Amino acid sequence: MATEFLLLGPLAVRAEGVPVPIHGAKHRAVLAALLLRANEVVTVDDLAEVLWGEDLPSSARTVVQNYVMRLRRALGAAGSRITTQPRGYLIRVEPGELDLDRFEDLLRQARAAARQARWPDAAGQGAAALALWRGEPLVDVGSDLLAARQGSRLAELRLQALETRFDAELQLGQHREVISELRQLAAGHPLRERLHLLLMLALYRDGRQGEALAAYRHARNVLIEELGAEPGPDLQQLHRQILAADPALERRGMGVSALAPTAPVRPVPRQLPAAVAGFSGRTAEMAALTRILDDADGDAAPGTVVISAIEGTAGVGKTALALHWAHQVADRFTDGQLYVNLRGYDPSGTRVAPEAAIRGFLDALGVPPGQIPPTPEAQAGLYRSLLSGKRVLIVADNAQDEQQVRPLLPASPASLVLVTSRSQLAGLGAVERARLLTLDVLSHGEAVQMLTARLGADRAAAEPDAVDRIASLCACLPLALAVAAARGAARPGFPLAALVGELADSAGLLDALDACDPAASVRAVFSWSTRQVSGEAAPMFRLLGVHPGPDITAAAAASLAGIPEADARRQLRELTRAHLIAEDVPGRFAFHDLLRAYAAEQADDADDESARDGAVGRVLDHYLHTAASGARLLNPVLEPVVLVPPRPGAAPEQPADYSLAQAWFEAEHQVLLAAVTLAAGSGFDVHAWQLPWAMSPFLAARGYWQDWAATLRMALAAATRLGDAAAQALSGRLLAIACTDLGDHDQARGYHASSLALYERLGNRLGQAKIHQSLCMLAERQGRYTDGLGHAEEALRLYQVIGDKASEAGALNAVGWCHGLLGDYQQAR
Fold this sequence. Notes:
Structural class: alpha/beta
Helix content: 55-70%
Distance between the termini: 77 Å
Strand order of the largest sheet: 8-9-10-7-11
Radius of gyration: 31 Å
Strand content: 5-15%
Number of helices: 36
């Protein structure tokens, strides 16, 4: 071929087989960034981020232009491949000229052959793909950012190619030939379970059963030490089969994934919320998304697509477009769909941390709580491992910035991540090769089309001028159009011209209102619409603005407003019909961010601070007392706490049994976290420490250790502000246990020591005994068995003094266990 561009090793260009020298680290960085997005426009801003990260020089744009100019000269005849575009630059690469493209094509062919059990083809194409690698890619490009982010993606692709090749060679009986290389790779990637599995199988088929079992023990020890979790079900099942000398392990003609038929089957997640009813318009954008997917043949999906809005406009329909398209292509993602609302621009300021999103994905992927490692880094690693080689659609809705999204990106190229954000997230485009799709408001014609679909064709045809005017007053913003159309549909006997008059009058009453300003026009629509709902529903709308979110039930709304639940349910239904709130999940009502901001604004303008505080107090009472009832069902021996009595109008729920309590906590998990933050920031310090206490049985049992520690830190701060020593001691003790579970042993010892001093000052022997029992567990984890024995014996003494027989039995068990760890087996028995 005339020109070759080589990324799979040191960056290189060859023309007619002759190397073309590219001097200068920055020039190489620009070339690498362009090649990683070959045949796509890379903006000047993207290139600047690759070159300098966040520390951009004032002349960045000019300097980038100079680098591109010099790069063209260095490339000689191939320099004409780099063309200037309106927003940046594009390098034109023909099929077969880029080694990365050739590699991915061969990997697709190898995987396809493996699925069809054509093992010679799978082995040959896998080997051919790997032969293209000349060393570690991107290490010489002069961009740490590019090397760190794209380098890990490329390394993951190489490992997948190796695993595909090894799988095929094992099926061809070449187990002895691959053992040495598998040992080296498993040692270099100790957390990658599939490499351990392949090594164990190769050893077993070579007649080395003992070494195969030793390889399992080594892998298990590493996983427990690094991740705090047992090996996955596939590795455990293969271990059992090796122990039993299962004849299936000698069977040829099947992939490694078929060797463990009795392993637990994880559920296929189907997390997409319902698509928006009456979706219309966006024909070009829908086609663009489908083209991106169609262009990716076989297993290799396009990676990441960001749907953003021009100038951060809210309500432009990003989520509606993402969900409508996602439902249309869901069947192409056979391993499931994951969804998370990251709440990056939530008016409450409570956004979803990446580690919380990953923790939720692990639940959706069917990982038992006992197998979820404690640290966010290990959870992220497990998440990527589970998605390795899988075809999953991941929708990350309402992201604030790149940092919130990057941890959610799987290494597997077979999955697609669809991101919506008010920001363009150009960094994802520059480094992760994300495709950027920018939404503006609807065209006037599309806005009229949307109104016609929702109002009815006959009605719209009868008053076309009114429909045109409504579209203009709504600034062609989809959210505003939906709200206005809902009002018109609710009054079928009214002429549309009357609705135009009402909307125009509302606009005139608002300060600084300009119908050409989308934000101002949206406020006009919202104001007009809220004045049209009943006198009962309008106050509920304002009160919902003080709720911490992300959603609310009728029972909680009843406490918020201090009214019977039946009335609250009726008002919520009315607000739903007016499109002021949405019931995306049955029984749970939520705002669009823009409407939440408007409701909060209305609540702040109500000039009744006592009424607002009363609503906050009632809804916090609702969550505290319901959580306390549920906590006692989850843990009947939970340490008792005297609760703040509920205010008049608050009506907490009473879960009837363990399963209902568990389900309530699962449904309200994010709401409860937001409620703790609201309590701590609104002067409700008693709620701020008692809510985390009530949440502890659920968060600890489900492995939400990060959430547990975060809420308990707020609890300890609130108890300290109150000067409540007993609350400080309890919150500190629970926080110490959470830190122990997270592996933060130094902090755990510090919190234990502080709580122990408080319990001693209070004369609380039960609290002292529990501290010593926890310190025993902490000492055991650190290998300090003599210290552990001392704490266990002190706990036993204190339990005997207070006559707590059940706890005494537990302390006796701990004493015996520590004797056993110290080698004194007779005393242990």
